[in-house]
Amino acid sequence: MFKVAIVGASGLLGRALVRELQTQTGWQVVQTAFSRVGPQQVALDVRDARAVVDFVAREAPDAIVIAAAERRPDVCEHDPAAARALNVDAVRHFAAAATARNAWVLSISTDYVFDGSAPPYLPESTPNPLNAYGRSKLEGERALLDATGNALVLRLPLLYGPIVSWQESAVTSLVPAIRAAAQKDGKPALMDAWATRYPTFTPDVALVIRELLTRCADGDAVRGIAQWSGDEPMTKYEIAQRIARALGIDANLIAQTEPADATPRPRDCHLDSGRLEALGIGRRTPFDAGIRAVLDAFEAQHPRA
Ligand SMILES: NC(=O)c1ccc[n+]([C@@H]2O[C@H](COP(=O)([O-])OP(=O)(O)OC[C@H]3O[C@@H](n4cnc5c(N)ncnc54)[C@H](OP(=O)(O)O)[C@@H]3O)[C@@H](O)[C@H]2O)c1
Questions:
Q1: In a domain, 193, yes or no
Q2: Is 112 in the active site?
Q3: Where is the RmlD-like substrate binding domain (predicted)?
Q4: Ligand 1 within 6 A of CB of 129
Q5: One of 133, 160, 198, 237 is an active-site residue; which one?
Q6: What is the pLDDT of residues 157-208, one digit of tens each?
Q7: Per residue in 269-286, pLDDT tens?
Q8: Coil, helix or strand for 64?
Q9: What is the number of domains present in the chain?
Q10: Contacts of residue 220, Cβ cutoff 8 Å, sequence gap at least 6
Q11: Confidence grade of residue 305 (pLDDT, cut at 50, 70, 90)
Q12: Range of the domain at 204
């Protein structure tokens, strides 16, 4: 039976993938988590090389999806060594362990490997990360692909999807400020109108990964670098406007036309998804429908007083 290991199953993307694979019959799925280990999950610290080797030897997966990472640019900038331990060294541990068993590895990377000055970017475009997060993810890509030919790097842009807290995604993290800016006498919310993003729905990415796993199970694995992206360009200011509309509130939002983040971020990293599209892989949920589903589900679970 085809066996898949999902590493980082407790995270924003990992949870969507677990949900997607529940619809797949005939596969065995093993999930790992770190600080939020659920009853169906194996506790694994991916920074521990020995533990990774033991996990892969014990479970003997045919495919490993690595969704564990430090994905917060400000945290990476502050502590690049800690970011490298997760985003580079851990990927290297899995690459070595998977090579020994000839398992296929799919590792998630980011559009932040590019500098955002000349979109759209192809898988083979020249990377030039602007911050520690992007540098660590690029190094992780290279660590994987240098160690094994039986692997795929899947680059993704800004993600949103079902959440357990607003802060889990840089899209939904805007909600508290949007709500505050809709209060009578509330503070206006300053929103970035400089950088263009392509918010991508995690259930769509999960479907892409399931289709890639299916190819692997069929003996036709995709290897090298692939990219998947939503196709609606928008700034965070526009994202905030759409969220306010979905929430049915009138928020006082102010467009900030110059970059204001302490950590440098690229302006427009539009990822070309043509390689996967040519394989007939993919789905794009319109942003307004996706964000409404996320907001409705979260508010149903956390009714406001
Ligand atoms: N979110 C985005 O907008 C975005 C955009 C582009 C690319 N990506 C990439 O997509 C992938 C998934 O991101 P995400 O947003 O799902 O991240 P996330 O929600 O922050 O989840 C991170 C995952 O990593 C696990 N983890 C953290 N430290 C660990 C450790 N020492 N050992 C084992 N597991 C550990 C966490 O486990 P616990 O929760 O159990 O501690 C969690 O499952 C990452 O590679 C990220 O770089 C994300």
A1: no
A2: no
A3: 3-298
A4: no
A5: 133
A6: 999 999 999 999 999 999 999 999 999 888 899 999 999 999 999 999 999 9
A7: 999 999 999 999 999 999
A8: strand
A9: 1
A10: none
A11: low
A12: 2-161+200-232+270-285
